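Dissemination and training. As part of the outreach component of the grant, students in the summer workshop were shown how a complex can be specified as a set of sequence lines and then modelled as a single object. The example used during the hands-on session is reproduced here so that future cohorts can follow it. Participants entered these lines:
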Amino acid sequence: MRFLAAIALTWITATTAAMANTGIPTDGALGFQHAVTPIMERIVEFHDLLLWIIVPITLFVTALLAYVMVRYRAKANPVPSKNSHNTLLEVIWTGLPVLILMVISFYSFPLLYMSDEIPETDFTIKATGYQWYWGYEYPDHGVEQYLSNMIPEDEIVDGQERLLSVDYPLVVPLNATVRLQVTAADVIHNWAMPSFGSKIDAVPGRLNEIWFQVTELGTYYGQCSELCGRLHGYMPIEVRVVSQDVFDAWIAAEPGTDDANAILAQNTADRATRLAQLD
Amino acid sequence: MSAHAANHDYHLVDPSPWPIVGSIGAFLLAVGAVAYMTAGGLFAEGPLAFFYGDGVEGDARGTSMGMMIGFAIVIWTMFGWWGDMIKESNAGLHTPVVDLGMRYGMILFIASEVMFFVAWFWSFFEYAIFHEVRLDPGMAMFPPTGVETFDPWHIPLMNTLVLLLSGTTVTWAHHALQHDDRKGAKLGLLVTVILGVCFTALQGVEYAEAGFEFALADGGNIYGSTFYMATGFHGAHVIIGTIFLFICLLRLQFGGMSAKKHFGLEAAAWYWHFVDVVWLFLFSFVYVIYQG
Amino acid sequence: MSADSATHDDHTPSLWDWKRWVYSTNHKDIGTMYLIFAIFAGVIGGAMSGMIRLELAEPGLQVFNDSFKLFGMLEMGDSHNYNVMVTMHGLIMIFFMVMPAMIGGFGNWFVPLQIGAPDMAFPRMNNISFWLLPAAFGLAFMSMFVGGPAGGEGFGGGWVLYPPLSGLTGHPGPAMDLLILSLHLAGISSILGAINFITTIFNMRAPGMTMHKMPLFVWSILVTVFLLLLSLPVLAGALTMLLTDRNFGTSFFEPAGGGDPIMFQHLFWFFGHPEVYILILPGFGIISHIVSTFSKKPVFGYLGMAYAMVSIGVIGFLVWAHHMYTVGMPVDLKAYFVAATMVIAVPTGIKIFSWIATMWGGSITYRTPMMWAIGFIFLFTVGGVTGVVLANAGVDAALHDTYYVVAHFHYVLSLGAVFAIFAGWYFWFEKIFGVKYNSLLARLQFLFFFVGANVIFFPQHFLGLNGMQRRVPDYADGFANWNEISSWGYAIMGVGMIIFFLILIEAMMSRRKGEANPWGEGATTLEWTLSSPPPFHQFSTLPKIK
Ligand code: HEA
Ligand code: HEA
Ligand code: CUA
Ligand SMILES: [Cu+2]
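and obtained this result:
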């Protein structure tokens, strides 16, 4: 009974998933989190295209199976034919998939190159993975590394998310093109942010780079996505996307301190009031 | 009964204790090796402590007792198993088709060995060619700072000549045996074995003179790791091949093998040539091309 | 041990003679031991996945929280022990369940029978291939109870064993060393097995059986063991490097000494990707026989089927880095791996369509094995097409290391490979054991497995798309719903497992005598010409193939 209830509940929530808040997983969702960078938007688009290819292929195979199962069951077709060759058919079912794959490639490669090649960026952030927290640096702003730890479950306050919120988040200005350099100090970690379409390994002894440009204000959550030991599930990533003014104030208040956090809190509160007024 | 008698030339081997004995040996060898390597206190207490305890307090290594027992069982299995095979061969059970099967088996075994060496070469090339991804500037070049590589035209060249020569002497032995010249065969094998020993000795000298270390703790780095492990595994194969050839020599000495049937010697020769070719790759790439 | 007893080889020893099994040089007995071993390992691996699903049934730590005790007695430890559970589940299912069942079990039983050979080429070596497995399993099992990371036991770094987590940095204790040696032994076992199968197939085919007349199951095993022969030594090399890094101070994967952890990933996946085809190719072979038998038609496009497997095997060696799109590879390299990976969809498609074409025009009866086979075709297609999605490095940036990947590979493994194993099991059960099983119960098991597995794994696609990462014991509250459903699916599948054992017990108790060929005219391969079970030594006079 609980099971049926769960299914029913899921489908109800699923239909409302579109209205859910962004930057965070939603119960019963069927697809990606809301995209807020050009890369993620293209990923979602491309994935939609892939769905339009793989679902029909699967349905087609299912339909064929269903047809032969019914049409050629022993009762309906007591005498089997002996055919075991049909060159034309074999050419078709070799050639058609090739064509389909070429279509996929046609859209796949541009996406790959677009997300991989770093455009001109406004500034650089350096992230370092540790067991089990992140360290962030803003070399272009002279900000030295500050650490970003998960808020333990029993210290969660209103407005924070269990397993996802951190004490000192990463902050970036709206629409800025950011270069993110990632490395690790002990084992491999992975800096992943679903709504940005970012996912890059933090490898000791190597420096990896990605870029993103966030086009919507808000708070976004991600998690370390490479198994890194006991607390792998407990090293989340929180990114606040704010206006340039707030960002500047935050930098001036020295990131990684309570003062800097106060600026973020103020900003969140201001936004909440303004949104409330709009309603 | 005769209706069931085998009407084919395949060899249906009798039940044998060696597989399970060998597996138990391998298991004990593995557990013992871990106890030895880690001194991690596997069974630090209780009746097994003598075999698997942590050894001397403060020592990096544990006791090697368990490992030795396992190793002894593995060696015993090899003697027993291959001894049985020699007996079966002498009893005429290795018909031409069975003989052919063993040839397939040996070639495939060597193929798997080739792939094993691919791993070591791959590691070497990865560093030699793609070192610039390393963050540490001292490690982002080849060879790394502080590493003095070998001059390929001294000991390495000598070793190359030794191995090439041994490749010809083993062929000499094989040809001699084919023409029922047992004396020539023995002589050829003896020379080959001696050359094999020379190679190992020369490699020992080379290792003693090396201008880089093996272990990180002694100031070693990736160059030493890839160099010693690749040449070291090759060296281990030289030793195994030498023993293999030596056993063939003993068998010849005691009247085993004939001009028509001597697959043991052929397998040893194939193995030896394989070891030879691996060396040529090591020599060309590790010593000559990427000498730094 | 030597020639004097060679004339006694037609004498069938008693089932209760322990030497018959322990000293065995008989491919059928060894095959049976492999099957029993696989069931044993499958139960353990399945129970471990039960612990995983129990933990994931709702958000928060319910099981791996330092105070929970299973059945009131077994301590389950903390989130590290969850990682150990996941790691061992993956390793056990792959190395000790699927491989022993398909290659060791069915391969040993039916390769010699189908090519008309009296036994394997190296019967004694065949036995050590088997006996090394319990030894390897023992080492892996021990590893769970000795020191791993600081303050924990067992290795919890995933079945892919990536350093530095698997190095001294992540797991200084001896657990990882035991696991490395365990995989060495399992690897030796498989390499020896591979040598044995290739030699058998090349050297011992009955007169008249050319390569192009070989049954497809034999073809599938041939390709599989070639992959084993060529990929496992590379893994052995990588594991050896890891071992020396840990114990002898080398720096292969140690950045401090100029090593690179990514190198391990290349070596691992150069083995790992062929490995996943090793797990499925024998299944392809089994499915071909079943589909043809119950459609009463020869396999459609026999040669195409054989060479599709060969090309899957060859291309399988060229695509390994699609597991590594996020490690920071040059983009052109990624582009190459995208293209190469997608190419595999073509030969695989040929197989899917040829199976359907085999059924086309047939006179199909839905006996138990056929139900599993049709289930396989459908589920494998679902798993395959999500593989094609993952192959695109652009989207993989969003999906790598999420439950989308978990869903993908369980569709091809837990639903593909496992369904193929059960299809083979019910296809050959009577041949192997000489008794009939209750086909009603077997269909019921199919029903529970089919429904259960889909309920477990289909929702995981949604979780992955929405961003749920792998290998975590706890998850954000927004993932609760689908996870709960997934865990209920496990309960359904669990009922299927109980039915599986009921079938075994029922068949053992009622002892309905098996027929030589229970499947009728559709079953054309040589094993059906023999009694069930076949004589201890078959084909004393070799069959002639026209
Ligand atoms: C039996 C095992 C098996 C099989 C058969 C496959 C088959 C395939 N796999 Fe899968 N895979 C795994 C087991 C398997 N995989 C495992 C275990 C992992 C995870 C490892 C880990 O990280 O722990 C993994 C992960 C994995 C990844 C990495 C994901 C990541 O970590 O980010 C990728 C990416 O390319 C991938 C791709 C593919 C592809 C393209 C196929 C193809 O072979 C599929 C081809 C089949 C079809 C496409 C369906 C039938 C075809 C048709 C009906 C024709 C028409 C179709 C088209 C034109 C599209 N797999
Ligand atoms: C063949 C491989 C295989 C199989 C069958 C399964 C079966 C199952 N797996 Fe698993 N799984 C893996 C391979 C497999 N898995 C791998 C490689 C990983 C990744 C590990 C890692 O991240 O490192 C993984 C990870 C994994 C996860 C992710 C954990 C995480 O990332 O945190 C989960 C979670 O739900 C899961 C669940 C299950 C479940 C519920 C089943 C159920 O289907 C289980 C039900 C039981 C059976 C189907 C077994 C029945 C078979 C027999 C009893 C043998 C019969 C034999 C004969 C008849 C001869 N598995
Ligand atoms: Cu850090 Cu996972
Ligand atoms: Cu793969």
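Chain A touches chain C through 98 residues (CB under 8 Å). Students were then asked to discuss how this feature might be tested experimentally.
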